[in-house]
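Continuing the series of single-chain predictions for the mutant panel. This is the parent chain; the variants come on the following pages.
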Amino acid sequence: MLTLWFLGYIELYFADEVGFNLNPYVPYAWQKEKQTQRILSRKGGKRLNIFGLMSLAGQLTVYHRETPIDGEFIKDSLANFSTKSYEKPRVIILDNGSVHHAQVVKDELANWESVDMLLFYLPTYSPHLNPIEILWRFCKYKWLNKAAYKSWSKLKRAILTIFKSYGSVYEIDFRKMISKNTITNVKVNFA
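Parent structure:
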């Protein structure tokens, strides 16, 4: 798929879902000796669930809701995405989550194929093959700051601002990662 994208034959998007709540994502922290740092944890509460479609060239489309993501939501999101105008066929890379294989999603495959949008499923247990996982990690561990967790409205606003500003204010240089790790002796134009 990457080769077809590199050669300009397709638009390639990586899709997945992620959830955010008021419990901050802090994998580790530093504190001065004999000084205690506290991070309040909240039980229950609201959750912002995101289904995102990201290209390696910096385009990001997100669909969000505060209720759990189900097959119907994935179908509706992909149906909306299929109506957007593109010059080349689109391939959407998904993992094997049950919502991606829901019957309501499968029922739409022929409709999406008729508008040159195809779904491609990664092998089982291979999140390392889906670059959108890097986006989720950057958002949770790098771009969201402590102040965003003070209230639900601040957190939701911060998350949606990050996704709205992705590609300009918030960026991940996948070009550098790809050229450094997978392509050698080939010139690629990422215009």
